[in-house]
Specification:
- This protein is α+β, with helices and mostly antiparallel strands.
- The chain is globular, with a radius of gyration of 14 Å.
- 27% of the residues lie in helices and 53% in strands.
- It has one domain: Nuclear Transport Factor 2, Chain: A, CATH 3.10.450.50.
- The protein contains 3 helices and 6 strands, in the order ααββαββββ.
- It has a 6-stranded mixed β-sheet.
- The two termini are 13 Å apart.
- The mean pLDDT is 93.
Amino acid sequence: FAQSSPAEQEVIKLSMDKWQWMADKDIAKLTPLFHPQAKFVHMSGTWTTARELEIIETGSIWYKKADVKDTAIEIVGNTAIVWNRITLTAEVRGSDVVTEFTVTEVYQKEGSDWKMLALTFSSVRDTHEIQK
C-alpha cells in the first residue's frame, strides 16, 4: 500500500483488522464499525447488522481465516469501496468450508470514523484478478 493515500491506508487497515475481529468473534470491535443500517450479502442470504453480529457471536458461521490475496480501494467523497480477493476458511454447521470470494465492502466517513455500510461476498474463480 506504499502508494496509497493516508485515507486509503486507514480504510485498508480497518478492512484487514475486521477479518481478524470476525475470526476472533470480537463483537465489541465490530459493533462500532458496522453501521446500524448495513447489509451483509452472503451465498445463503442478505442480513442486517444485528443478524450478522449474532451469527458471528454465536459462531453459526465462524470466519476462521480470510487469506487476502489482492486488495483494491477507491475513495469518492466520504465513501470508500474496498475489494478483497480472499480465500475464506469458515466453519459452517460444524464443518470447515474453504471458498474463494471477491468481497466488496462499502464504508462511509461519519465524523472521524469509517462505518461499514455493506459487505458482499461474490463467489469467483481462484484465478480472478481485481482490475485496478
